[in-house]
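Q: Could you write out the predicted structure for this multi-component system? I'm mainly interested in how the pieces pack against one another.
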Amino acid sequence: MITIECKNLVKKFKLTKKQIKENNDGLKFKYAVNDVSFSVEKGSIYGLLGPNGAGKTTIQRMLSTLIEPNQGDIFVNGVNTKKNPEGIKRHISFITGEMQFDKDLTPDYLFLFFGRLYGYSDEEIKSKRDVIFDDLEISSYRHTKMDKLSTGMKQKVSIAISLVNDPEIIIYDEPTNGLDIIATNVVINYIKRLKEQGKTIILSTHIFEVVEELCDQVAILIDGKIVYENKMEVVQSKYKNLRELFFDLYEERV
Amino acid sequence: MKNVMTVIKKELYKVFSDKRKTFFSVIFPGLMIYVMYSTIVNVQLDEMTQLDNQISQVVVVDAPINFELSNQFEVIHKEGNFNDYENMVYNNEIELVIGFAADDFSEVVSDKKGDYQISFYYNPTSQTSREARENLLVELNMLNDQILTTRHQGENVLRAFDVAEKQTGDMRKLVTAGLASLSFLLIFFMFSGAQTHGIESLVKEKEQKTISSVLITPIKRLEFIVGKLIAVFILGLLNFVSSITGMILAFSKILFAPSSSSEALMTVGELAMIIGVLLSLMILFVSVIMLLSLISKTQKDTGIYTTAIYLAIFIAGFTTMSESFVIPSQLYYYLIPVYNGLLAVKSILTFEYSSVSIIVTIASSLLLSGLCIGSMVILAKKENIIYS
């Protein structure tokens, strides 16, 4: 069953005069995503693999309705995201290292704040919070302000907050970026558990091992276009590893 | 509306869950103003008391035998040359040096001398010397009257008419005139209060990328902005109330001095008008600052933009500060943002207002605030603005 379907997505950004001059090609726009289509099955993990600037985050921002595509459509459970973005947001969570939380607030209050934005009562939020915080071992620093927490701790808080609305779909941008090996292990194990719970996960990364360990399907993005897409089992049967496939494709393109 | 309330609660929680922020947002502005102004008031009151009780040190040269000054003066020297003491006045060592002509003063009294001269040096740069001069002139005039009375052997010859001095005018102005000239300070504090929290409100969310984590939830961009706007308004208002309380406490010695008049200083309507003008201005300040915060890329940018508004308030404030400033009656003056607020507050405090000009002031401030909020609504739809 298809949960997410992207059709011919295009996202372009207007360049500044300085950028136009530097590029020296006369183009006034840069295509961050250019005619991208893919679909994700319910309960699977879909990996977007590519170098920096390939368009991974832009696709995820469009999926989470933070930004709108210039062309193309995204369907979540058959509903076009343009028609009911607020409704779609109730089923989606977006976790990104780039995304920050208010440094002056504690994990405890942030969870309450985000829970309220999803329309839950304080009692509902508090009971969820206790379970999730215990699960992610956040309880010991739940009253500490965010600016006093380590990167790994913040990452765990991000995961906890992303679960406040019990999302059906979790979009995860560079989940292990900046984490040490211990924190990386926690995050990877948690993503596996989310899959076991039947969540649909779209994760972007530039780390081959993360995709190999977690994903059911992978799309390789270069310069805003999907240059390869297949199930992981097919990739693993055809190629020695993902790294070899990626660099073959990359050298072809460059 | 629920989401708006959630954002307001979060913004207020951020301030009130932190003792340091609470202190600097609510208590410090009033405390700072109280300390600053009460120091000024106390220094001025002390100066006035000192002047009232001043005993001026003077040198009197060649004084006639019977010449005496009142106990407001202490004569420290009587010998020497009049001009030799000029330097002592120049250096503020004494307040005055008074010199009598060498001629026989008794001839002046007996009407034999008409061009007798009494000279004195005073230092206009010294307040005590100026005060001593005033007192001396009063005493010399009295001496002059006494001599003329003696010469003409009867008071009636010297007095052509009697002067009957009676007071009229709105006595309330005696109390409010000083406040009216300081009305720009009220408006300055309001802007300062709005700016403290408004300057970072939206742009900080963009700079620290916390805006994305909020907008990923079902909240609408408009709800988020309105929530922030109301929170900044509440915090700005608290800051303003704190500043005003500090100001009133600092001026309490002057404002609440025992008065013979039992008449109420202002009517409820006049008080309501002042509150209306100030509230509409506060809404305008918050709206403008929030708009600037939305379009700015960094907090530094917002700081630069708001500094320009600070300057405008100062310029408008100084032009209306003088007690001799005539409050214009033409309505178009009351359409000029901020300036109209200054005019309106001053006109109410000097009881020279017209209800129409006050209504125009409030309406124009609210209209401009509406335009700012409308612009924010339009701009919030633009991805390059909200995620810049």
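A: Regarding packing and overall arrangement: Chain A has a mean pLDDT of 87.
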